[in-house]
Design goal:
One of its GO terms (molecular function) is oxidoreductase activity, acting on paired donors, with incorporation or reduction of molecular oxygen. This is LLM class flavin-dependent oxidoreductase. InterPro entries: F420-G6PD/mer, Luciferase-like_dom, Luciferase-like_sf. It comes from Nocardia arthritidis. β2, α2 and β3 form a beta-alpha-beta unit. The mean pLDDT is 96. Strands 1, 2, 3, 4, 5, 8, 9, 10, 11 and 12 form a ten-stranded parallel beta sheet that branches. Strands 6-7 form a two-stranded antiparallel ribbon. It has one domain: Luciferase-like domain (TIM Barrel, Alpha-Beta Barrel). The protein is built from nine helices and twelve strands. The protein is globular, with a radius of gyration of 19 Å. α5 runs parallel beside α6. The protein is of the alpha/beta class.
Length: 294
């Protein structure tokens, strides 16, 4: 059995031309019993709305859902200001905000927007420093000083402190990122497109080992899985995360019990997003909740 309630949500693409549909999907999810909305963050995509602005617009329109960037592009977002944005919206929504963070990708596009191009090791170090800055800013204390090479605080005044307890979830893939997740983060955000089952097990063990080495309970580090695929109507089972509702029910139940996944963010890859969201929320989620004791 899972050690905590399993949560379910939707992954949204912030396309400017689809803003109305995005509001409709969020409103549906808010009333359909889903828990989370994750929105990808690629500021250099000219067709995309700014993720944080979109999250703000959707969060204040809803009453239940927790929102988070999946994941925020740190090289283009100052961590002290990002911390203040998260805390502000957390207060405005009554504690319904979390923070997904990534070390950076698509470096040519980041550099084109004025962001600093970093090597793999430096990007991980910058992310580690950013986590320290963000947590300090959330403390609400005055005269904060956080040393670092890439991100620092030099006498800054933190606050406002968030109402709830926003989690910091990392989109981690490589060994150094996985170790940072276990050492300093509240959760891990792998995606089924690159995190297959063997990898999930091995990476989960690395995160657990890093958490234990840091004196943390490994079970305190959540595992939220971005699951992309198609819930089909033709009854044909095409394999992992691609088939009729029963296929999805079996796969997600297995992931909870065997891989300690405790959150699923559904990203439909075919068909109408609203229709796919309804199939997930109404035909898959209730049965997985029943199967897992959630």
């Amino acid at each position: 059995m899972p050690t905590r309630t399993v949560e379910f949500g939707l992954f949204l693409i912030p396309e400017a031309d689809n803003y109305r549909q995005l509001t409709e999907i969020a409103a549906y999810a808010d009333t359909a019993g889903l828990d989370l909305i994750g929105i990808q963050d690629h500021p250099y995509q000219r067709r995309y709305l700014d993720t944080w602005t979109l999250i703000t617009g959707l969060a204040v329109r809803t009453s239940r859902l927790t929102f988070f960037p999946d994941v925020a592009n740190l090289p283009l977002r100052n961590p002290a200001v990002l911390a203040k944005s998260v805390a502000s919206l957390d207060i405005m929504t009554g504690g319904r905000i979390d923070l997904g963070l990534g070390a950076g990708a698509f470096w040519d596009a980041i550099a084109a927007m004025g962001g600093q191009r970093l090597s793999g090791g430096d990007a991980v170090r910058a992310l580690s420093e950013a986590i320290a800055v963000i947590r300090a800013m959330w403390s609400g204390e005055r005269g904060l000083r956080v040393p670092g090479t890439f991100h620092t605080l030099n006498g800054a005044h933190g606050g406002p402190a968030p109402t709830g307890d926003p989690g910091i979830w990392l989109g981690a893939k490589g060994p150094r990122m996985l170790e940072l997740t276990g050492r300093a983060a509240d959760g891990w955000l792998p995606s089924s497109g690159w995190a297959e089952l063997d990898y999930l097990r091995q990476a989960g063990e690395r995160i657990d080992d890093a958490a234990a080495a840091a004196g943390r309970d490994p079970l305190s580090v959540r595992r939220l899985y971005n699951v992309s695929g198609t819930i089909t109507r033709d009854g044909v089972d095409r394999g992992f995360l691609n088939g009729p509702p029963q296929r999805w029910i079996d796969d997600l139940t297995m992931l909870v019990h065997q891989y300690r996944i405790d959150g699923f963010i559904f990203w439909p890859v075919e068909g109408d997003p609203m229709t796919a969201a309804a199939r997930f929320a109404e035909e898959v989620v209730p049965v997985v909740r029943a199967n897992t004791g959630a």
